[in-house]
Amino acid sequence: CIRDRYEIETNFSRSKNCDATTATYTPIDDTTVSVYNTCVRNDGSGKTREINGKAYSIDSTNARLKVQFFPFLTANYYVADLDPDYKWALVVTPERNYAWILSRETTLASSIVEKLHSELKTIGIDPSGMRRTKHFDTCLLYT
After folding, report:
1. Chain centroid to CA 104
2. pTM value?
């Protein structure tokens, strides 16, 4: 079971009720990707939550994105840091109120997490509010 990105940590308040959060990105064209986010509710029900959307590049670097989940719900996201081999990414909102550490694996070396926490401090986000996302074998849930 392979997901495009696993959420390692976030301070996004709506994520506190979810574990095993993943995002799958599928290219549509040179500037647009399909976004499919899933998680497993951590209320004991085992139910999954999902949302589909589209992400549009809003600059020539493709590091600034506008994501549309519903016609009335769009949000901007910035890729603040990115591994040269695309193994992990640090994504933030332009207002610097939310952040996500994403990885191609369900875990990320603590040295990298510490580096990204330092980057968060530099851009004005308190890393102490980041919550580690629990992951477990969810492959059976998505088949």
Report:
1. 11
2. 0.89
